[in-house]
């Protein structure tokens, strides 16, 4: 059954057992649903006393209590998706199966909890047969390899080809989609694949390297719940699995930071918002009462151009994007999402650290220093504007190419909006500063930067293209916060570039920078080693080109003065 796409906040029911340490079962389900933007509901099938070291005891409430929970939900809430986990007994399985038949949700995902990670069978043979009898209610089943083998009635697969063959057999037997998961295979690769009845080749295959952590408790629960939520929202199974998988890989990478228990701990379900919720800029943008509020008038120049959220996401040309060194430790750059880092958990953290020497060089450029303290000569600033106008034309086209290559709708919309808003946002500020006169022709440095971005976004795929564009956001957000804070120490009133600084130190732009970072992180999650290295090279090359772009203005001035 195909779901209705574009559900704003999917209502997703978890039917599962408990976990008092919060890593698996309905606790993991509810966290995963929330992390994917859904509203979670919960029906408890079993009260499980467990922790990160194992199961201590299991109590199964009377079936009448289970039925009452299910009926209470159905009588009051229109569900967009249902995820089924631990069921445990024949009576429980049959009760849930009958309820699914009577109250069909648009999306049903069943995680057939049959075999423990250690290999022990969790269901009696009659319960296994009962579980097979309800799988036709599922739009997707998500067995691990031992569970897949039980359903296929074959030995546990030891190769990826064997796993795919078993997945195809199970899909045909039960007439539903199967997510074949390769996490139990040996080696560093952890492939997954979506297979469907009537088709030999997988609908989609997903690659990735194994995340080095023992904290994997509840990964099966978390993934299946996340998939149900995303698909309820979008209607796209292949892309929904990809989105949920990328999120889970990030949750695994951040799992060690939780420090829950002494055994195999849980994953970090909310790793993707950990930094944002402590970022004043993010909070300010999220809690803004009036998105249409205009910026204050700038001295001597009339109203500064108002930058909407969409425009703020786009204003990322070289203009004032030079990174003026590292943000000060006293919280001066706390308004920038770029300053909120969680070392060791994100690919973009590695990129930011690698570009530190470039940021240090940019920080001391006379142009950057003069822009911040107001001593920059007007003609020098206008020479910079001349080149930036040329850059912006290519930059907007590069963003459009990136939007066309983006793997998901939200990312496509983000970069497409950014491409369009460059003209109405940043370019408008340039034209006002240049009094409408035509800019000078592009320099060799400007042309080189423009050609680089167009080549990476047009030829190298989304992952590399996004990495190439990221410095245009991140370095700029960094310097915007830094230079504005410097100017505020002495007072912005009377500062010759106050309109410029205030326009570009915008909380909405800092939030957009974080969106661009997330896009790069997600692309890196699903990339192989060669692609990740290409992303790294593209990011650092763009940082070097930012340095050269700003240095050219200072160099022209030095030559003229000499």
The helix content, as a percent range, equals 40-55%
Evaluate the radius of gyration.
27 Å
Secondary-structure-based class equals alpha/beta
Distance between the termini: 75 Å
Unreliable stretches covering 5 or more consecutive residues: 1-5, 288-344, 426-434, 556-562
Strand arrangement within the widest β-sheet reads 2-1-5-6-7-8-9-10
Going by CATH, the homologous superfamily of the largest domain would be: Ribokinase
- The DSSP helix count reads 21
SSE inventory with pairings:
Layout lengths: L10 E6 L8 H11 L3 E6 L2 E5 L2 E6 L3 H14 L4 E4 L5 H13 L4 E4 L14 H8 L7 E2 L3 H8 L7 H15 L2 E5 L10 E4 L8 E3 L12 H16 L2 H17 L26 H7 L10 E2 L3 E2 L5 H6 L32 H8 L1 H8 L2 H8 L4 H28 L3 H16 L1 H8 L10 H16 L1 H30 L7 H7 L2 H19 L3 H33 L1
Helix pairs in contact: 1-7, 2-3, 5-6, 7-8, 9-20, 12-21, 13-18, 14-15, 14-16, 14-17, 14-18, 14-21, 17-18, 17-21, 18-19, 18-20, 18-21
In short:
This protein has 2 domains: 263 residues, UDP-N-acetylmuramoyl-L-alanine:D-glutamate ligase; 254 residues, Heme oxygenase-like (Heme Oxygenase, Chain A, Up-down Bundle).
